[in-house]
Amino acid sequence: MSEKVEGDVLETVVDKDDSVGTTNDNAKERAVDIPWRILGLMFVLYTVVMGIHVYSHSATNSVDSLFHIRLARLYWERGLFTDFPWMYFSVARDYWADHHFLYHLLLIPFTLGDLFEGMRASAVVFGALALTACVAYLYAHRIRHAWVYGLVLLMSSDYFLFRISMPRAMGLSLILLLVGLWLLETRRDRWLLPLGVVFIWSYQTAVVLIPMACCAVVWFGVLERKLDIKPVLYAFAGILLGLTLNPFVPHSFDFLFFHLISGHMDTKVVIGEE
Predict the structure, then answer these.
(1) Rounded to an integer, what distance in angstroms lies between the CA atom of residue 108 and that of residue 71?
(2) 2-55 and 146-154 helices cross at what angle (nearest 10)?
(3) Burial level of 252, CB count in 10 A (0-12/13-18/19+)?
(4) What is the pLDDT of residues 82-94, one digit of tens each?
C-alpha cells in the first residue's frame, strides 16, 4: 500500500515537473517570439518613414551615393578588380583601396535595375535596418517596451534621420557599432575578432572599436578591480586581420593611414570636402 502511495506521489511530482518545464519552455518561446514580432513591425514602420523621406523628392541627398551605386554595378559587371583608374585625378590616386568593399557587395542586388532607383531603395532598406538595430539593442538588454524608445528615435533629430537616410555606409556602420557595443558590454570578447574583420571590410570607421574596447577595459577594471585587456587585443587583431586578408592589400593599410592621418597633413584639400 505504501509503495503504491509513494509511486503515485512520484508520478505526481514528475508530472508537475514536466508541466513546469513545459510552462518555462513556453515562456522562453514567448520571450523570444514577442520581441521579434515587434522588431518586424518596427522595421515596417521605419521602412515607411524612410520611404517617405527618400521618395518625397526626385534628387539625392548625397553625391557620394552615386559613386557607391556605380562601383557596385562595376563589381557585378566586371567581377573583383583592385585598380581604379578613375581615381587618377584624386588626392588618393596613389593609395586607392575600396574601404567600403563589403558595403558595395551588399549593394549589388540594388544595381540590377535602374541605378538611381536602386540607390534610393538601398537607402530605405539600410536606414530601416539601422533604426531597427537600435531597438534590437535595447531588447538585447531586456529593456521593457523598447518599441516606445524606437518611436521616440523618429522624433529625436531631423539631422540624424537625414544622415541615416543617405545611400551610404552609415546605416551598416551603425548596425556594426551596436553589435560591437553589445559584445563589449556582455563580455563576448572573442566575437570582436570576426566583427573587426567584417567591419573594416565595410567601412574604416571600424577603427573606433579599439577606443571602445579601451573604454570597456577601464570600466570593467574599475568595477572588478582587475585589468583584462583581451577586448582591445581581439578588436585590434580583427581589424589587422581584415586589413591583411583584404583584396586591396597592401593599399588597404596605405589608404587607412592616408584617410586618417597623412591625407590631412600632406594635401591642401580638406579630406571629405574634395
Answers:
(1) 9
(2) 0
(3) buried
(4) 888 888 777 777 7
- Name the burial class of residue 233, with classes exposed (0-12), middle (13-18) and buried (19+) by CB atoms within 10 angstroms of its CB: middle
Instruction: Express each pLDDT in 225-245 by its tens digit.
Output: 889 999 999 999 999 999 999
Specify the residue for cell string 583608374. 85
The grid coordinates listed for 122 are 538601398
Q: Where are the domains of the chain?
A: 1-87+99-168, 171-246
Read off the pTM: 0.82
Nearest 5°: phi and psi at 220? -70, -25
From CA 116, how far away is CA 119, in angstroms rounded?
5
84 φψ region: left (φ > 0), alpha (ψ -120 to 50), beta (else): beta
Name the residue among 189, 180, 230, 233 with its Cα closest to residue 208.
180
Q: Which residues contact 254 (CB under 8 A, 6 or more apart)?
A: 94, 95, 97
Cell 573583383 appears where?
80
What contacts 53, CB < 8 A, 6 or more positions away?
127, 161, 162, 165
* % the chain with pLDDT above 70: 82
Q: Which three cell numbers stand for residue 232?
A: 582591445
